[in-house]
Design a protein that fits this description.
mainly beta, Phosphatidylethanolamine-binding Protein, five-stranded antiparallel sheet, globular
Amino acid sequence: MPDLNLGDLSITSTAFEHGGRLADNYAYANENVSPPLGWTAVPDGTAELVLVMHDPDAPLLDGFTHWVLTGIAPDRSGLDEGTDAGVSGTSTFGEEGYGGPAPPSGHGTHFYYFHLYALDQPSGLPSGADRDAVMAAIDGHIIEQARIVGTYST
């Protein structure tokens, strides 16, 4: 587990507030488009940004990873809705790219963590890397990180 390394790096969304509900169009069973995300205060010396969307509430031992995106240029200030300007990894769905919220029916509200990591060197990860591979590759190279959390229930 990486150190927190919290600083001025900040991640936000125009589609939901921190702790707010994700709209239905972002869900896997609907339009399955990624929400818009923006960030500020990328630290000096950042070589790459990495984004991971994870649901720790899923009834699986390690939760459920919905999105892995590496290779994001440090001069980017965000991602528009439905875009993935980087190298797509593999979600727990077994698919590359964004896979929206899909909590089991009647399982209550799930919390979706969008983690943004600023790295001191490129991860060098190929497309298709899963969350475990990403976390292993970035361990010890995180300058700062930030997160925003959205919720969803069926």
